[in-house]
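FW: tagging you since you asked about this chain on Friday. Here's the raw sequence from the shared folder, copied in full. Didn't touch anything.
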Amino acid sequence: MKGKSCIGCIPVFLAGTFGVVAADRQEATPRPNILWLTYEDTSPQFIGCYGDSLAKTPTMDRLAAEGVRFTSAFSTGTVSSPSRFCLITGMTPTTMGTGNHRSQYPIPDFVHGFPKYLKEAGYYTSNNYKTDYNNAREKEMIAESWDESSGKAGWWKRKPGQPFFAVFNSPHSHQSRTMTNPWEQYEKQVLNRLDSSRMTSTDAPFEMPSFYRDTPEMRQQMSRVYNSISLTDQQFEGILARLEKEGLRDSTIIFCFSDHGEGIPRGKGSSLGLGYRVPFIVWVPEMYKHLSPWGSGVITDRLVSFEDFGATVLALAGVEIPEYIEGRPFMGATVAEEKEYVYGACDGLDSNNELSRSVTDGRYIYTRVFTCHQPWVRWMTYYDHGDIQKIMRKDFAQGLMNEGQAAIMQPREAEYLYDLNRDKWEMENLADNPEYADLLSHFREKMEARIIETRDAHFIPEYSYAQYADRYIPYTLRQNESIYPVEQVLHAAMLSGMGKTVIPEQIMLLDDNNDIVNYWAALGLFVSRKDLSEYKAVLAQKIFSIEYEPAKLYLAGAAYDCFGDDDSRRILEAGMLSGNTAVNKITMQILLNIDLGKSQALLPVVHKHIDIYGNEKSHGDVEYFMNVVLNRLEGKSFTFSSFW
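HL: got it, structure written out here
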């Protein structure tokens, strides 16, 4: 077991030894209460106990000083709903097809919220208040998991002596507070509720992330992060005071963690350490120390991921862990063997079609970007609404950013490798360093093996989820080798972003008899569209031979951006006017990434789409995304106020 004491580097005990001792102790000890203090959109870099001396987080810092602080805890996703799906089920979104934000796809009947098993074992379960479980059975899952899920829920409604599992979700550090809402709304939501002693001023000397310009305007925006997290800490102080007042602190195990990385540009929604790595603290009272492999005041680099959290709670409560749960307990009477790697996934968000995959050993994080035509700061309505992103786009347009800052506004590389210990803000991409070639290859192999082993459901376009919805849910669709030959699909996807030399093979794969292979070949050609000048004739032929609509659209987008031909433009126009929302999303994604002048030539059909579908509830998510399309093409938004 890896770990060290905060004082004197006292070694921790081996998990196996503790497992034997714990078995005897647990029988004579009442079952523990378990409290989760969860919060939104926060990375460890902005918490006091993780080394930020200007952060005002005394409640979390005290928990860490008396408990266990994890340095290698990772969410499985970089936005809330995929992460919270994993937390409630113990299943990874890539297996279930639940990685696209708020997509609400069906999942197998055998999957349940893990608190259901606690209820059946006699626990009182309460959730205050966020759910965001991202699947079609969400209402059923809430009902079966919680005795109460509301803004008034808490342990105080249980029967006398009944053990409890209580979750409190603080909204104060959410992206809406840290960057998205207007400053006036942030003042009402955060500053007006925060004790003056906890406030960080706009000119405080905190460290600016290296990927941002260090200007007064950007410092003002970043001060929101510190104050929003401080308000979260203030809320947790009140919850723990009530726990203490009611005499429950000495019988309650406390988890304190965020749902994914920081709610700022290149944090949340980005497949980097800043998107995945979370602050995570566990506090264990004396009577349950036998259930922990660690002592007090300990820092551990044990590698844990969100699929492990539910399994660990069940283990702490002495409840059998269902076989289908992918996670394994890192605390309890028997502790699972330590992981060597954990895996992360970044998928669709706000109609933005993204796909990146990551693997980390806790120190290094490798990311393969399959949609590298998009920058880290992608075009998304919710993000572009924020002042910080508006400032960044303006600074980039005016050439005010240095090379590292400008890089996050431009198309991405296919591969990234960062040393999280030595490169706090992930600015030095080691994938370009020959000295790390073997490590890069090793991580790439791990990622590919994971995708194949789990038959990652998100390499199947959402268009096909709908296409086969009468026969398959995403979980079962990914198991169909005829529809989804995963190794062939992955091979085609791995060519994306690899430059000129793979273009002939990508063109050849357009003739493959599998739609999804065609799709990845076409998307890869879209990524390399600036290098297609010598292939005009063959692409003109292929566009009309491809039947799979998503592949046809990306190929047309590549040809239109490269050649400006009428046939490709007409295909994009048809995509914009399609009644299929998946087709609409892809078409809009293309318009956001190709030459601005060529996109603007399609403005009449964009407005025609609005006339037809603007008030259709079934197109709500698409129309929301349409705001950012018009922002780019016209510099204004047609219905922006209706969403805020």
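FW: The first strand starts at residue 4 and ends at 5.
HL: agreed, and The mean pLDDT is 93.
FW: great, closing this out.
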